[in-house]
Structures are given as structure tokens and as C-alpha cells.
Design brief:
The chain has one domain (6-145): DNA primase DNAg catalytic core, N-terminal domain. The chain has six helices and four strands. The chain is 38% helix and 13% strand. It has helices at 6-34, 37-47, 51-56, 72-77, 151-154, 167-178; strands spanning 60-62, 93-100, 103-111, 127-129. The protein is of the alpha+beta class. A four-stranded antiparallel beta sheet has the order 1-2-3-4, covered by helices on one side.
């Protein structure tokens, strides 16, 4: 890393740390889903995804209590928690990691029947996205929403399909892998 400033080196290290945190959380969420028969059944009933899709896309389940062993500052930098909160950003949601070269670069969580209401009894949104630096200065500049879900699958493809939501591209990519 010769020729880089100390600031450049720190930025690179922060990016590595954020990637490591997002990858660690992906594995936690993925194991949660694999070990939760009710959540797996919901994924099957609601979106017709079986174990093959869950494993291929590293889909997961966030309980909201599963990241307590990870240092709060790491979770904040990775966009997984607000700075002054001890509560996880994602609670009882099916998690879709955006993977680029097997590294998680972004998350979106889909609502389940167990997802709690938001503040003041307001209904929780269907989707909840990872916090980004653009909307929260405590989050690393490495965390942003500039990625497409399934981006790796289009790199060597002859065509691209655009779909709304997160379940549709998962289904399309799954069918593509089977053909």
C-alpha cells in the first residue's frame, strides 16, 4: 500500500471491516433460517422457495436478538444498527443479502407475520433496507445502495431481466440456475 496516505489506508481497512461484519451477519442470519422450521415453512408457502434457493442465495432470518455478541460500533459502521440504539435494525424479517463475489454488500429484510409494528403502532413496511452513509453519517461510506440484487448473475449473461421487489429476481435467478 505504498504511496497511500494514512487516510487512504484507514478507509481501505474500514471497508475490510465492514465487509467482514456483513459477511458474519449473513452467516448468522442464514443459520437462523436453516434452524427455524416455521420461517422455512413461511418462505416455502409465501414465495415457493425451497432449501435449494435458501442456500444458493444465503437467505436468512433476523430475530433482532442474534447480533448481541458483535460490538455495537461494528454494527453501526455496517448499517445494521443506529448509533444510540441497542436494538437490531431487522427484527423477525426474512433477509436477502446482496452478494458480490460471495461478499455481502447490502441487505434488505422482508416483513413476516412476526415483524413488530413500528413506532406509535404504525404498521411495519413490507421491506426494510440497510442503513447507508447517505442517510446516516455514522454508517461507513462503504455502505450504500448502489448494487443490484443478483448483480453477479448478469456479468456473463446475454440478457438482463428487471423485476420489482426482491422475491421475483430470486425466483428468476433460481430458475436460470436450473436450466
Amino acid at each position: 500500500m505504498e504511496g497511500l496516505t494514512d487516510e487512504d489506508r484507514a478507509f481501505i481497512e474500514e471497508g475490510k471491516d465492514v465487509t467482514a461484519t456483513l459477511n458474519e451477519v449473513t452467516e448468522i442470519y442464514h443459520k437462523n433460517l436453516l434452524n427455524n422450521p416455521e420461517a422455512l415453512q413461511q418462505v416455502k408457502e409465501d414465495w415457493n422457495f425451497g432449501l435449494d434457493e435458501v442456500k444458493a442465495f444465503k437467505m436468512g432470518y433476523a430475530t433482532g436478538k442474534d447480533l448481541k455478541h458483535i460490538e455495537n460500533s461494528r454494527l453501526v459502521k455496517a448499517g445494521l444498527r443506529y448509533k444510540n440504539s441497542k436494538k437490531g435494525l431487522f427484527v423477525n424479517r426474512i433477509m436477502y443479502p446482496y452478494l458480490i463475489r460471495d461478499n455481502t454488500v447490502y441487505f434488505i429484510g422482508k416483513k413476516t407475520p412476526l415483524t413488530p409494528t413500528e413506532k406509535e403502532g404504525k404498521e411495519a413496511g413490507k421491506y426494510k433496507k440497510l442503513l447507508t452513509h447517505d442517510n446516516n453519517p455514522d454508517v461507513s461510506r462503504h455502505v450504500n445502495n448502489k448494487f443490484l440484487f443478483g448483480e453477479d448473475t448478469i456479468r456473463k449473461s446475454d440478457y438482463v431481466l428487471i423485476a420489482e421487489g426482491i422475491s421475483s429476481p430470486t425466483r428468476l435467478n433460481s430458475q436460470k440456475k436450473k436450466t
